[in-house]
Design a protein that fits this description.
113 residues; alpha+beta; three-stranded antiparallel sheet; 3 helices; 3 strands; 36% helix; globular
Length: 113
C-alpha cells in the first residue's frame, strides 16, 4: 500500500490515518502517535521517500520512530520494524522496575569496547 501518487492533501491525511489505525490493530500495547512523509539519502546520494512513524510502547510516554520506504507497502513494513524496535527496547529494560534503573555507562564506553 504505497502512498497514492495522485491525491490531495486531505486524501493523503485520510490514507495515513487509516494506515496508522491498521498498524495499531496489528500490534497490541502500541500507541501510534504520528506519520510524516520525509526523505532519506541512499548511499549513492539519491533521495528516497520514507514515512516517519512515531509510536509509544504503553504505558511509557517515550516516542520511538521507524522509517519505512514510502514507495513500498509502508504500513506492513512499519509493523515489522515496530515489532523489532519494541523487542530491542523491551529487552534492554527487562527486569528493571523503571527506565531510570538502567546503569549509566561511562562516557568513554564506546572507546573502550
Amino acid at each position: 500500500m504505497p502512498l497514492p501518487t495522485q491525491a490531495s492533501g486531505d486524501q493523503l491525511a485520510d490514507f495515513a490515518t487509516t494506515a496508522l489505525a491498521w498498524i495499531e490493530s496489528e500490534i497490541p500495547g502500541v500507541d501510534l502517535v504520528s506519520a510524516m512523509l520525509n526523505q532519506r539519502t541512499h548511499e549513492n546520494g539519491d533521495l528516497y521517500d520514507v514515512m516517519d512513524v512515531g509510536f509509544r510502547i504503553l504505558p511509557d510516554q517515550t516516542v520511538y520512530y521507524v522509517h519505512p520506504d514510502a514507495s513500498k507497502d509502508w504500513p506492513s513494513i512499519a509493523v515489522g520494524e515496530i515489532i523489532l524496535k519494541m523487542d530491542k527496547v523491551l529487552s534492554i529494560y527487562a527486569g528493571l522496575p523503571e527506565r531510570a534503573s538502567l546503569v549509566e555507562l561511562p562516557p568513554d564506553w564506546d572507546v573502550i569496547h
